[in-house]
Amino acid sequence: MGGGTGSGAAPVVAEIAKESGALTVAIVTKPFSFEGRRRMKQAVDAIDELRANVDTIIVVSNDKLLEIIPDDTPVERAFAVADDILRQGVVGISEIIVRPGIINVDFADVRSVMGDAGSALMGIGSGTGKGRAALAASRAISSPLLDAPIERATGIVFNVIGGSDMSLKEIQDAADLIYDSVDVDANVIFGALVDDSIEDDSITITVLATGFRVEGEAVPVREGEEQEAKEVDSRGPPKGYYEDPEDDIPSVLKSLKRR
What we know:
The protein has helices at residues 4-19, 37-51, 62-65, 75-98, 107-114, 132-141, 168-181, 225-235, 251-258, and strands spanning 25-30, 56-61, 118-127, 155-162, 187-194, 203-210. It is α/β, with parallel strands linked by helices and 259 residues long. It has a six-stranded mixed β-sheet with strand order 1-2-3-6-4-5, sandwiched between helices. Strand 1, helix 2 and strand 2 (56-61) form a beta-alpha-beta unit.
């Protein structure tokens, strides 16, 4: 974000998609700090506008990528890494739905986590060798791309992708680690996919966490919740409830009043 195409077109396209009834998920990047304050401001303004027109928005700060890539990475390669992070995020969401896997996920399940979810965070981790699945899961949920502890998420979507040698036990190990790291009441949806094109012994896990409260962002209200809240307000306080008129008075002033 921050340029003409992403900042100008993305909110418009997203609005059209959401109005058509589609589950609309945006995955965007914020500029590197060295790209200048003006571009960053344009990006932030565009992201705010985009957020109002999507179900879920995942914002990846390019500066966070500096914690992943080596210090001597050339500029062109750094931008390529940023693009690849976006690609993996899109693939992680889409393939969990459209590609048949060992464990398939219904689209309605994904919508239950990502529909009207507001801001979301994304983590990606890979592992090789012994314990590779658990290692990939651990790296995904502790990824520098996550701006908040995953324990605070109320919805999780994660996808496990490995070669033909990936075992069911490895999938279970990865799932158990993620389940143990989130709230017991979190809505967790996951899928597992065998990709025969993977030539090494790596396993990659993409985790999407939703339900976070971002500073300055209103809490998302799902369909039906707003009416329920109004009904509760209209009934007033419960029977027998007494409201002390001094409840709003600071304790310091109360002590002065008693003198």
